[in-house]
Design goal:
By secondary structure, this protein is an alpha/beta fold. It has helices at 12-27, 49-60, 75-78, 83-91, 106-112, 130-144, 162-171, 191-199, 232-238, 280-299; strands at 38-43, 64-68, 96-101, 119-124, 150-155, 177-182, 203-206, 219-222, 257-259. α1 crosses α6 (130-144), α2 crosses α10 (280-299) and α6 (130-144) crosses α10. The chain is globular and about 55 Å long. The relative contact order is 0.17. Bound molecules: phosphoric acid mono(formamide)ester (CP). Heterododecamer (2C3:3R2) of six catalytic PyrB chains organized as two trimers (C3), and six regulatory PyrI chains organized as three dimers (R2). This is Aspartate carbamoyltransferase. Belongs to the aspartate/ornithine carbamoyltransferase superfamily. ATCase family. Residues 2-141 form the Aspartate/ornithine carbamoyltransferase carbamoyl-P binding domain.
């Protein structure tokens, strides 16, 4: 059975299958797909959307969820148990294991100790967030009708923003994608992602302002500056570097959608919510369908 640890390990056709399955489950709910299956959702780092949408997905498909949302309050942390030992115990109870953990590489480590129980990465440090990427791809497909031939801007914290790392890697499997990167210098896209894009022959360019690219875009993907990963002095200096307002979308193409993995702080003003371009709350809802699709395919051994 397949572990879902990072986007580079999924093929284009697997990504398309997940997006197509999410669309089917959104249109036609199926409360039988995970009947008699138990899924652990173990969140060692805070989460609202990922955890609750996984739990909703499992319950809507007829499965049962166990787990916790604060590793610091469990015996794992309090008694000093290693992650490897915790995974061996919990995976012996369940059919699939969803994990979020602050340490990069933690989901892969979990997959090495789960005795074949599929592990799904719900976010590992600043590294990967593959299931966020699946709902992002579903939202892009739903609004644009395609995953090829896209102009997409990533704005904000591109250094620590694991969602943009995973989404850039996913879209690089599709044809004729143009990326526009807009970030403070200290939060620039990591070199390894730029190098991967270079090797794949994908176009990307760096820009100082959103206004100069908005008229060309299909997707404007905003991100939050991650306070928890910066010094206070750095955070104060750059937190308001890029703020999207409704008036900045005056020259946006009709089809442009604004996405954001959420939570937002103040990088999108609330007046944007009322425009035809705002899609971040529908995107968050799509997390349920994308995660339903992923679990159904993994647990029925179609991935
Ligand atoms: N987008 C996202 O991962 O949100 P949570 O941290 O609330 O899960």
């Amino acid at each position: 059975q397949k572990h879902i640890i990072s986007i580079p390990e999924l093929t284009r056709s697997e990504l398309e299958l997940i997006v197509e399955t999410a669309g089917k489950l959104k249109a036609e709910p199926n409360p039988q797909l995970l009947k008699n299956k138990v899924v652990a959702c173990c969140f060692f780092e805070p989460s609202t959307r990922t955890r609750l949408s996984f739990e909703t997905a499992i319950q809507r498909l007829g499965g049962t969820v166990i787990g916790f949302d604060n590793g610091g309050n469990t015996s794992l942390a309090n008694k000093g148990e290693t992650l490897a030992d915790s995974v061996q115990v919990i995976s012996s109870y369940v059919d699939a294991f969803v994990i979020r953990h602050p340490q990069e590489g933690s989901a892969r480590l979990a997959s090495e100790f789960s005795h074949g129980v599929p592990v799904v990465n719900g976010g590992d440090g600043a590294n990967q967030h593959p299931t966020q990427t699946l709902l992002d791809l579903f939202s892009i497909f739903e609004t644009q009708g395609r995953l090829d031939n896209l102009n997409i801007a990533f704005v904000g914290d591109l250094k620590y923003g694991r969602t943009v790392h995973s989404l850039a890697q996913a879209l690089s499997k599709f044809n004729n994608i143009n990326f526009f990167f807009i970030a403070p210098e200290i939060l620039a896209m990591p070199d390894y992602i730029c190098e991967e894009l270079n090797q794949a022959g994908i176009n990307y360019s760096l820009h100082a302002t959103m206004e100069e690219v908005i008229p060309k875009l299909d997707i404007l993907y905003m991100t939050r500056v991650q306070k928890e990963r910066l010094d206070e002095s750095e955070y104060v200096h750059i937190k308001a570097a890029y703020v999207l307002t409704a008036s900045m979308l005056a020259d946006a193409p009709n089809n442009l959608k604004v996405l954001h993995p959420l939570p937002r702080i103040d990088e999108i003003t609330v007046d944007v919510d009322k425009t035809k371009h705002a899609y971040y709350f529908q995107q968050a809802e799509n997390g349920v369908y994308a995660r339903e699709a992923l679990l159904a395919l993994v647990l029925n051994e179609q991935l």
